[in-house]
Amino acid sequence: MSSLGERYEEHHRERRDGGDFVFVPERVPLLVAAVGRGKRVLDLGCRTGALTRHFLEGNSVVGLDVDPAALEKAAALGVEPVQADVEDQLPFEGASFDVVVAGELFEHLQFPDALVAEIRRVLRPGGILAGSVPNAFRVQSRLRFMRGRPPEDDPTHLRMFSPAAVRHLLAGFERVELRFVGGRYARLNARLFARDLAFTATKPSA
To answer: Model-level pTM?
Structure first.
């Protein structure tokens, strides 16, 4: 099986070359609020920094990604770039970050629980994990499945997350909060129509 970097780079090369983008911009203020100011932040899978730039001001931000070309763009914004694969051990000492951001990342991983364990390791006690995953069980995905098509159209998505699955993944954290965001019809029924499931969780202090 090809590495995460090879799969991700092949699928996203065209989008990267087309310019920066942020899927589901409604999640941006939630992540910015979770990060706050005066923090040392690790953004996992930062890509070109299109999301990272929203919480750069007032923080020291390290961006980790497998794509060196994308990292060059992130570095130009002021992000400290680190090229690595999130499916390997994170190249940081324990308890070295106040906040870890994982936006649209866990769905790409073979073993997201291994990364969550690494996130807990590098977070300081009381530190925050903030991120998002696609709302894979929204109505649009269910209709695609009923038509005999894959629920997701992104071939790099290896996992599908429901609220219960996110809570299970983050079982080692405290104060797990979930919010459905994005989607034209989310106001009618967020659980059924929202595009994303945003989350925050706190590493236990002891």
So the answer is: 0.86
d(CA 124, CA 51): 23
Residue 137 tokens read as: 């069980």
Q: Which domains does the chain have, with CATH numbers?
A: 4-202 (3.40.50.150)
Residue type, 197: L
Q: Bridge partners of 134?
A: 196
pLDDT tens profile 1-11: 345 555 555 55
HSE-CB of 2 using CA atoms within 13 angstroms: 11
CA 195/CA 164 separation, integer angstroms = 16
Express each pLDDT in 22-39 by its tens digit.
678 889 999 999 999 999
DSSP 154-188: -TT----B-HHHHHHHTTTSEEEEEEEE--TTTTT
